[in-house]
Design goal:
Largest interface: A-B, 41 and 41 residues
Largest sheet of chain A: 8 strands, mixed
Strand content of chain A: 25-35%
Helix content of chain A: 25-40%
CATH class of the largest domain in chain A: Alpha Beta
Shape of chain A: globular
Distance between the termini of chain A: 57 Å
Pfam family, one (chains A, B, C, D): GFO_IDH_MocA
Keywords (chains A, B, C, D): Oxidoreductase
Family (chains A, B, C, D): Belongs to the Gfo/Idh/MocA family.
GO molecular function, one term (chains A, B, C, D): nucleotide binding
Domain GFO/IDH/MocA-like oxidoreductase (chains A, B, C, D): 141-270
Oligomer: homotetramer
Strand order of the largest sheet of chain A: 12-11-7-10-9-8-15-16
């Protein structure tokens, strides 16, 4: 019998590391979605898609604009290089497509703002930035506990993003376009701070940043300095209403990926992944007790990415708000960029109560 | 475009608790399989299926034999009540269908053996008993380590199956048909013992049982005694070649499901789930540090059930041996039944080297 | 100023591995006790004592009977080889000394009983068998929770004693005198079962053993078979009032000492050392996350031994009951010996409600 | 027989919470030391001492200067209120006594420096500030691993000191004299940073502070603001040679004391107490799995305080360097005070390569 279920017609743009995964999630793990098209400018990625997507009925495109015209297409998942996230998202919105865009919207605040403004002009189009960590089961449980008041008022948030060291030099090359460690890695932690610090109002109002400061070192990759980047960063973000978030990011965690977060409220603390592990196995050997941890962020967050695809699909099909508010995603870029600036200048950066950045030397910057 | 992928045409028999889940796994989470049909004799289950399966193109049947005739059907997942597992499996095999049968094959050894014999007469038909625990990522990692020699020779295995207490009396009603706690719960642990104790020969040869003994109490449900069953059981199984497995099962674990296994080899120990948890979240509250554990076996083993469906599908499509050998599944029933007998009689039960059970009172006990 | 505190005048008998530690505990870590004398028949141990005890004012003896006559001596800690525990304890009691005797009282039930009978004839003399595990902070907390009803009725107890493998052959030589793995190692676990299963009556009444069965293998030390011993043992003890204890012991745990216990009650479980570690340090290295565990029982239970000395001293000075009741220590030997017998005979051993052992073949053994 | 062992003749000054503990440690748990005298100006504390110290031969004094004249006195443990630490330490040094002084030397840098200068003029006198955490077994293991190169170069250190919330208002009253949360709590974490960041040179050279910045909130105790203090503080300390330490302190951790530290090197990370617990017990109850953590710093660090007393005693008797170098203890005060200043001013505070503080407004900031 032919299925009678309406499924969201989705295309994925970009079939690199993360794009290929998104394609698989929409193709095989999102029952209410149907992957109908995919775009990549890269012949190698198209080769991969011919083997893994085309046989399942997915139409392949080498031009993004062509793909947008795919008949019946309803939504696009933008998973290309960060530098074109915003451009493709804007085009897709303007073509009337719903968009799930990989984080960050852009490494630049102005451009992120343009995405937001475009979306605001298309109120019926769902636009969501893919902060995958929010869809992880442990973070979701933590959020529900925080929201229900289990820990009193969330006051301090500590969060870290630590990648396994990759000795190939990849991180150096990547630093040219990544926006730097605070925009690339800690953007997740910043988003978590915005999420948890607005848990008591159900996300209705974002906390207002007051100041940021950042520090960093190049412990293993001195060449990162060329791009004003570091391989270990520490940042602190202070909010106007008595909340503080502090972050750590690293490109040199030896056993693998160790992302963790503590949300500290006035009556309790929620700790996500303080005690990392890949699963439930420990080896008791002559050299002691051993366990493994995920080797990369996808091993850690695979389930979250799948859940993200499902919740985005549900939001579109059922016309509900997307679970990650776009204003917060722009705010995360603002804070990430400010941290990166602080890292480079060595200065503490201040914001007024309206969210406008004011230089330490006193005058308000009219336009960032 | 129409997909060009060949997908295994699967039906699920039985749409109760576990059957409904299997149906969902084949429908939405097994890319190379297509759920085409489903059978249930129960109007409530058919009602559920009309809502959740039919719209996706699944044909519903209220007669098992009719379902077997579904055009193009290649494989059946048998997930009905334990009492009809064997009958349906045999029918399906004889109709030329590959079968994934929920555990146990039967609560009776003779009937399990009939399944095995039927399968033996159809060597091109894949028949697998669904010992889901083998498909759990942590158990798979443990097995690979054991197989590669990381812990020397697997010598002692400790394994437990502990369910959350259900005060509704469900366990008492269920005991009539379940075969008893050793056949219903510890069958998994027995299967793990057979699996790990044959890891050094790659599963080519099962370890030979030498004796079993079992004990039990009815701590919370005295009515279980009516069915010769208990709510807490302890059993020991000795093998002829210097290996011992010991088991615990319980129907009264307060926080939830806690199934765990330790495989102790001559140079190391693998410990699966010694430190249970649902995820990576801990709450630090005034009352101490808290974490949750899964509330039932499906919360614990959901991923394993999905993986089981995938591996069964691959074995059929690619004509590879199924990952759970049927002879071992019969042996597991033999050992489970013997444990249950020992529980009831209070006797230690012995087996000769050919696997024949010899009574303690002397009969047929030529030479141990 | 001269101290005005009355301190218990203690002697230690035997200055081997454990005796030397007891001497140090009474000398330096038991404020209300004063180590005044020590005995060893071994010149090497006397050599050690000349360096470590004599300078602190401890008088050394090479004859046990001479030491008993030491002026003002009030109490003796018997820490010699197991074979002379009972003889020295009896002599010391008869000389009017309070006794803390290392476990087990004897590897023979009759002799343990003689110690008990002697103590019973000297009701003002405190006699305690040193089941150190009872003084460990985690076990004490568990007991207090069990006693207060936190887990309902203690019903199942699982406990293990696992030593680090010692490739020197020490365990083989030791097996000649140790009484076997169940009497030497699991005696602790048996004692814990007696302790926790009488928690609901405050220790007033010991649970009554109904049957025992044991299994074992020689995985690394086949020569143990000469002494009817094994390097891995599994035993089950059933009690008349619906309680079951099951034990594991091993001489081949690669990372070190792993002794653990679970006390399972009708409404909760207490788990001691499911997740072993030496302290609070973990290393995150390229090979994964690692931690160490104690290398031997003294590393694990050092604090318990000190606490044992303190509580024994307090019981004597304040004329309170000793915290480990002697009747239970005899019962532990009875159960341990029965397990060892079951291991050797392959038979399940039964006891009647009066605690008398009855052979499987029917007749009651008049005198064990 | 009379002991022939030479024991260090020690007095304790101050018998409050911590002083009474030090007295007990020197009296009962430091074999090579003899507590001969104790001083307190407080009648209640003297009352306590009459019961607990005097009977053991300890002479009590109500005048510090009188106590210093106690015949044969060799060493003083200064455990009075922080405000008189320095004064008493200086007096004791000048009277030729070795000194173990509780942390911090002072809440003021100048006064800490005076202690250092006095000690420098008495090179044969041992003076040590009691940074107890360094004597904890887990920290000692971590240090030995770091020193031996197991984690490459220590680069980032994260450390926190979190007290259980005390609703009595104690923390507010205490804030008047404590120097603030960074000087009172994080001083330990600062000391750890200095210790671990000089591990690669064996402590020969302290890392040079480059800048500090601090943030804080009063989440539960707004009255702390009167004293320029907070109940939650976050601080970052940057060093000139590419190392960063970041700290958190809190007065509101609900389950108890949670002090933890991560030392992140170029090839590994050492994690101390990421997974806090009081011992090896977990309760599996209907509400989940639970464990307790220490209720205060003494429960957490009791063993470390005892070890501190022992190592100080050994250093004096064997004329070895004290294990905590005094220069570092002054440096810790300098950094703690700067963090407290940054908290109050909202400014980042800079230091030149000679360790001189330079104001952000430009003064003395010749060349950074």
């Amino acid at each position: 019998m032919a299925p009678q279920i309406r499924r969201l017609q989705v295309a994925v743009s970009g079939l690199g590391r993360m794009g290929a995964r998104h394609a698989n999630h929409f193709l095989h793990r999102t029952p209410r979605a149907e992957l109908v098209a995919a775009f990549s400018p890269d012949p190698k990625e198209i080769e991969w898609a011919k083997e893994h997507l085309e046989p399942w009925g997915v139409k392949l495109y080498t031009e993004f604009d062509e793909m947008l015209k795919h008949e019946g297409l309803e939504a696009v998942c933008v998973a290309t290089a960060t530098t074109v996230h915003a451009e493709q998202t804007i085009k897709a919105i303007e073509a009337g497509k719903h968009v799930l865009c990989e984080k960050p919207l852009s490494t630049k605040l102005e451009i992120s703002q343009q995405v937001f403004d475009t979306a605001a002009r298309h109120p019926h189009t769902k636009v969501m930035c893919g902060f995958s960590r929010r869809f992880d089961a442990s973070y979701l449980s933590a959020y529900n506990l925080a929201r229900s008041g289990s820990i009193g008022r969330p006051t301090i948030l500590r969060s870290q993003t630590c990648d396994k060291y990759d000795p190939s030099g990849f991180f150096v090359a990547y630093a040219q376009f990544s926006g730097g460690i605070f925009v690339d890695c800690n953007i997740h932690d910043i988003d978590l701070a915005l999420w948890f610090f607005s848990a008591d109002n159900g996300g209705a109002q974002l906390p207002k940043v007051k100041s940021v400061v950042a520090f960093g070192v190049t412990a293993l990759e001195p060449d990162l300095a060329k791009y004003g980047d570091v391989d270990n960063g520490v940042g602190v973000v202070e909010f106007w209403d008595g909340q503080i978030a502090y972050f750590y990011s690293s490109r040199m965690n030896p056993p693998g990926q160790h992302d963790m977060t503590e949300i500290i409220g006035t009556t309790g603390k929620l700790s996500v992944n303080a005690n990392p592990t890949t699963g439930l196995l420990e080896s008791h050997l002559a050299t002691g007790i051993h366990r493994d941890i995920p080797q990369n962020y996808y091993e850690r967050f695979e389930g979250a990415f799948v859940e993200e695809a499902r919740q985005f699909t549900d939001a579109v099909l059922d016309d509900k708000p997307v679970p990650v508010d776009l204003a917060g995603s722009v705010e995360a870029v603002k804070i990430g960029v400010a941290l990166q600036d602080s890292l480079r200048s060595g200065k503490k950066i201040l914001f007024d109560r309206d969210g406008k950045r004011v230089d330490e030397d006193g005058f308000a910057r009219a336009k960032l």
